[in-house]
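Propose amino acids for all 441 sites.
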């Protein structure tokens, strides 16, 4: 199921489906470009999937590509011929990412009316494209991002803050590229595919304000903990002393065309099809799962109990799936990620139940600051842990799921997948038998 989910959102294949060339005519989704009208064609971008996306554009355009640059997470590389590739830090930005952002900003600003700029964007792009505003250091911005993530802020809240401390995010890349034509290809890692939130929307109108960013800071009660340079900048912006990010209707978006080439729904449906093919009655519940990871894990455990105890929503063998992205409010000093915490919480709630497997998996191959993509839990996870002297409840309290599952051998480790469309959550219940066509209906 995991292999099917990842294959369905292969970035290169997604670009080839969305972008077609016949001679000098280039089609990107519903949009048509005559390559003979453009003096130069640049490819820029950011995100965990940016390298294979750029590679696909090179394959399609060949010698028409003048140059460009993409910024990717360490290890997420593929060979590129005409586009420069820079590896940088994620989830916390670093100096390499800042240098890449400066170069992308320069390429964008050099764009003219007779140029076509192709921009590839995928999950992780916010951290990989740091261009702090004047007066705010990368170190200060990194500290603020880390504090927001540890406080349990949603990705939308984190991005609202980052946009207003950046020279590229929140539509400012589009502003820099004008008057060039800007075609944007997006592999979405945000629930609902809001263009302003994916990689902090560098080429999309920004509906958030400085006041919204300050509201996030206050909501999580971190005003006294964040760097003073960042807080001062947000306050000056809210007071109208700094121009806002470009809003809907701004002329800078007149030549911007955006196409979403893949998202969590593509991935989750592929996993569901694989489960149904393997004989499970299958239901895709949602692709908008969010909230605290441990609460979501308990929810999935309750669904497993419902199948076993009451045959709801149907009897086993059953597979229930969801896509989305949960959060973790860090209260301990352990090591883990949202998917591992989800699985640990679920494992506690299905203890003793045979024929139950619950898994949480990050489609990018990384879960939090670990080398695991996620973890799986079964009805005997708790008993096996106790036999090894492991305390599951204490591990959950410390946000310490990684060493727990490492000792059990139940981490899901794939390495970088070079794609990123949120997470996949799966519960399998019951024996495996072939379901008839009538039953599946």
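Proposal:
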């Amino acid at each position: 199921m995991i292999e099917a989910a990842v294959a369905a959102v292969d970035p290169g294949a997604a670009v080839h489906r969305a972008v077609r060339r016949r001679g000098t005519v280039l089609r990107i989704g519903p949009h048509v470009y005559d390559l003979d009208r453009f003096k130069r064609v640049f490819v820029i971008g950011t995100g965990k999937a940016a390298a294979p996306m750029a590679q696909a554009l090179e394959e399609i355009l060949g010698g028409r590509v003048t140059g460009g640059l993409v910024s990717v997470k360490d290890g997420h590389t593929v060979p590129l011929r005409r586009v420069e590739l820079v590896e940088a830090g994620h989830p916390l930005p670093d100096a390499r990412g800042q240098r890449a952002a400066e170069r992308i900003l320069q390429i964008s600003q050099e764009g003219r009316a007779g140029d076509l700029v192709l921009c590839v964007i995928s999950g992780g792009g916010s951290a990989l494209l740091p261009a702090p505003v004047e007066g705010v250091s990368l170190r200060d911005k990194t500290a603020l991002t880390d504090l927001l993530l540890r406080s349990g802020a949603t990705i939308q809240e984190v991005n609202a803050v980052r946009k207003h401390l950046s020279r590229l995010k929140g539509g400012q890349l589009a502003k820099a590229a004008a008057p060039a034509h800007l075609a944007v290809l997006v592999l979405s890692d945000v629930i609902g595919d809001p263009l302003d939130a994916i990689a902090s929307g560098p080429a999309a109108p920004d509906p958030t304000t400085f006041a919204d960013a300050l509201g996030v800071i206050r909501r999580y009660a971190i005003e006294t903990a964040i760097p003073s340079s960042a807080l001062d900048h947000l306050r000056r912006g809210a007071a109208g002393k700094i121009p806002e990010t470009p809003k809907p209707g701004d002329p800078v978006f007149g030549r911007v065309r955006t196409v979403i080439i893949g998202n969590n729904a593509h991935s989750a449906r592929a996993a569901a099809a694989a489960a149904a093919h393997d004989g499970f009655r299958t239901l895709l519940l949602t692709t908008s799962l969010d909230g605290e990871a441990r609460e979501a894990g308990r929810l999935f455990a309750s669904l497993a109990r419902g199948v076993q105890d009451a045959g709801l929503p149907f009897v086993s063998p059953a597979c229930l799936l969801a896509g989305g992205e949960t959060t973790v409010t860090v209260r301990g000093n352990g090591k883990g990620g949202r998917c591992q915490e989800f699985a640990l919480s679920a494992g506690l709630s299905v203890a003793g139940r045979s024929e139950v497997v619950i898994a949480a998996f990050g489609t990018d191959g990384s879960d939090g600051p670990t080398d695991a993509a996620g973890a799986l839990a079964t009805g005997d996870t708790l008993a096996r842990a106790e036999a090894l002297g492991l305390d599951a409840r204490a591990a959950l309290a410390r946000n310490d799921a990684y060493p727990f599952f490492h000792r059990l051998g139940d981490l899901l480790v794939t390495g970088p997948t070079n794609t990123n469309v949120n997470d996949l959550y799966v519960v399998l219940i019951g024996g495996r038998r072939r379901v008839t066509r009538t039953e599946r209906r």
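Residues 2-131+166-208+245-262 form a domain with the Rossmann fold fold (CATH 3.40.50.10180). Residues 5 and 132 are 35 Å apart (CA to CA).
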